[in-house]
Amino acid sequence: MDTFIFILEIIGTIAFASSGAMIAVEKKMDIFGVNILGATTAVGGGIMRDVILGVTPPTAFAKPVYILFAILTSTLLFAIVYTTPDILHSKIKNKIYDKIMLWCDTVGLGIFTVLGIQTASRLVTEDNPFFFIFIGVLTGVGGGVLRDIMAGETPYILVREIYASASIAGGIVYVVCRSSVGEASGMLLGLGVTVVIRALATHFHWNLLRIR
Amino acid sequence: MDTFIFILEIIGTIAFASSGAMIAVEKKMDIFGVNILGATTAVGGGIMRDVILGVTPPTAFAKPVYILFAILTSTLLFAIVYTTPDILHSKIKNKIYDKIMLWCDTVGLGIFTVLGIQTASRLVTEDNPFFFIFIGVLTGVGGGVLRDIMAGETPYILVREIYASASIAGGIVYVVCRSSVGEASGMLLGLGVTVVIRALATHFHWNLLRIR
Amino acid sequence: MDTFIFILEIIGTIAFASSGAMIAVEKKMDIFGVNILGATTAVGGGIMRDVILGVTPPTAFAKPVYILFAILTSTLLFAIVYTTPDILHSKIKNKIYDKIMLWCDTVGLGIFTVLGIQTASRLVTEDNPFFFIFIGVLTGVGGGVLRDIMAGETPYILVREIYASASIAGGIVYVVCRSSVGEASGMLLGLGVTVVIRALATHFHWNLLRIR
């Protein structure tokens, strides 16, 4: 189980670090800014979760491995774009690149949502599903909110179709199913629901109600 | 006393949720963004207070009722504007609407200032008036600062005439008077001072010194 | 030692308060906005550090002296510019003023980096250099990040040449040297390294890699 969670954590870290690093690259930040924004996106949600749960120091500071992976990912992406800057301007950019970025953000959202719930239920004995799901959503969206605010953008969560709602749906599925299907399967199920809802919403341009 | 505090909390929650939700509506966010910004404004200051005081998990997460009221308020406001969008563009908008928004923000500011002080003095035994007032101001302005940063605006507190100063004045009055007039009356007095100062400042266009 | 640390804290507080206050002045904020931004810049990094380390309430709230110095500094600067507004528009402004602002920010960065490490090592018994340096950088850059986000600017740390890297270098020097040269000398050494690197980088326009 520990290995399973660690693998999820690393995948989520790499996915979110990529999304933060690439926004920094697009904004022409230097290699350090790219690393800072990548790392902030990757561990920001987890730090918020730990601060809320009273975990001191937060895991991201106590165990350097996550920030290390975030920095490796960010530096690698910077190196790729630095050596082949045409990547950002080529015709294929709009199609493939945007799709990759969307997947990184979506996978990170799904993974950190279930990881947040998992951490909260390990630390808080009282069974409070509402609270667990909230912590999950905070963990899932926190890094992206910091990323967008630092980059001077309106946070994704406020303007993108079906973003936090996908995270909430995945969280509910995990919390509801885990007693019957087990922790690991419950996490994969919740993560899958978040990713599928967000992917479908993007593909079919589902939108939530909006004032005209 | 508990009932009295709970009623204040709910009024403050509804007032701040309205101010956050309407800014989201004006920015053409979807129903989810409206709920997120409403809830963040309503519980943001209290979460900052609890993190500073070491209350884990913060009350907003442990007791869902506040977020629930924030969501109900935001969804209701969204529904009203969605069904009658002319509200935002009619002639009366500037007059009445702006006034309502100002009152929501002002009432929330006053209520959360005294609630912050009340929570701090319950949890911290040492009598430190400076610290209590600071926590009060943080609780009062915190949600609005988050709202403005997420909405991409310069925080109210930095640019509006007599904003944090009204909160500080109300906090001082509460802290000074409560031993003589009692907790509940002290809170109403402090809250009243904040609201009256801010209302007068807006009505008479009082301004603090500013570089020309 | 306590006196030495206190003197560093006050110098850092004044330096960062100045940098925050002057940005508020440039943005034409009123006297209260200037004080809020000055105080937030001065104590923001320390509050983040204390929240991460589980120090409740954070030192800035428990001991009013730091916020008091920040307010005195901000009010004094406001008064100077208010009485002689030409300062901001004179020919000499670009040369001297920008240099003073840079030094304030640099000295604050250096001081709060070593102070953050010092606090972390006092509170956390386990010897984790990586963690200490991280807390140091967070303490050093935290106030400036809040200042920039509240002022609506892209955080310095993301776009300025050699900013967080100077803080990291100073932090490493302090952590490595303190066992041999002692705490106080180690702090001065680390602080010196941060300041010198940042000063040299600005003078010679050193830049980190950046996508063209």
TrEMBL record, chains A, B, C:
Superkingdom of the source species: Bacteria
Protein's cellular compartments: Cell membrane
Residue spans crossing the bilayer: 6-25, 32-53, 65-88, 100-118, 130-150, 162-181, 187-209
Boundaries of every Glycine transporter domain copy: 7-80, 102-178
InterPro entries tied to this protein: Gly_transporter
Entry keyword set: Cell membrane, Membrane, Transmembrane, Transmembrane helix
One Pfam family, short name: Gly_transporter
Family designation: Belongs to the UPF0126 family.
Official protein name in the record: Trimeric intracellular cation channel family protein
Organism: Blautia argi
